[in-house]
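Exercise: predict the structure of this protein bound to coenzyme A.
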Amino acid sequence: MNIAYTESADGVTPAMLAGFFEGWPVAPSPDQHLEILRAADRVVLARDQHRVVGFITALTDGILAAYIPLLEVLPDHRGTGIGSELIARMLRALDGLYMVDLLCDPPAQAFYERCGMTRATGMLIRDRGALGRPDDRGSV
Ligand SMILES: CC(C)(COP(=O)(O)OP(=O)(O)OC[C@H]1O[C@@H](n2cnc3c(N)ncnc32)[C@H](O)[C@@H]1OP(=O)(O)O)[C@@H](O)C(=O)NCCC(=O)NCCS
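Solution:
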């Protein structure tokens, strides 16, 4: 399998982003997904010939702190090292910052520990109305 990694969403179309946000009760549409990739301060994409098969985003002030809100690999590409490569590349891109944070469920903590991160406790708010009604979220 030939996977290329890029640090920009240039050339990506919404149609190339199908299949992500598996299991989310309210998921961004592919159009919104592309906007997210373009608006993030840092992005790393894993691409095969025709589509994006994995992605990671980060938001950062560029001085002190960064947050990694999203990391996902398409189900049929999992377990082949793509997720590890995406987080490794992102941590290199954020190297030098004091703090790099993300939230994850307990079963994923071992995965992030292997990538050099440390277990922690966090807090959050989720507003499921924030993405709009499905009919308002564009096509594809
Ligand atoms: C987490 C994710 C990105 C890992 O991608 P991947 O390409 O499969 O990762 P890799 O192939 O590099 O590594 C897979 C290893 O991580 C482990 N792992 C990853 N996520 C895990 C999870 N949620 N629970 C348990 N184990 C997990 C796998 O069991 C596997 O372990 P092994 O190497 O000992 O077999 C992918 O499983 C995914 O997209 N999950 C759904 C979205 C998600 O949970 N994102 C993270 C939100 S914090």
